[in-house]
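Friendly challenge for the regulars: who can give me the structure tokens for this chain first? No prize, just bragging rights.
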Amino acid sequence: MSPSTRTDGRDTRWAEHRQARRAELVEATMKAIRRHGARVGMDQIAAQAGTSKTVIYRHFTDRAGLYRAVVAAVDDLILRDLGSALATPGAGGDLRALVAAAVDSYLTLVERDPEVYRFVVTRPLLDTPVSDDPVEGMTSRIAEQVTAILAARLRGEGRDDRAAGTWAHSLIGLVRAAADHWVAQPDREPREVLARQVTDLAWGGLAGALRTPDTADVPEESR
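First reply, four minutes later:
Bragging rights claimed.
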């Protein structure tokens, strides 16, 4: 085996080790958040991880890096749950059912991990704004999945699909705003109630936007 091959092998193993260690530290951070609440501090996170803040910073550079890693983990959970919900046989050909599934999968994660969700949206570790917005990136990736579904529906009807992105991002923005408000309430109504309310509102607008224009309603000079 050549020296370069041995070096490449060591580099690969070291990269895998660092990736695994980062994942462990992110999981420890999420456990600390669940234990101490969304306002958890770095000392509490380090204690939960059984290490020092210096070691954590070595893997994430700073608190903003750790925050981004937690957002990415939550993003993965939402996308996984959303993918499962959208693949449910009962929602296959029913667009309203797909909207309901998307709404409920997002709210289910909020209900399951409210402190982690609060941590993501309130950014307690950050003293100054970050150059990018990890949460906006998270919701954008969710909206991309919904965009693909809406675009396919429009193309299947022989219609222009350029509005799909606008509708999808509007839908996810609505769900996120409702979730942010809901999770802040001390006496929250059941998730199922909120999911139905948000789905009714979202579908009311989306169904109207998706409706094929009736030529009878179009002014004669525009035909």
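The first helix runs from residue 3 to 36. Residues 9 and 165 are 43 Å apart (CA to CA). Your move, everyone else.
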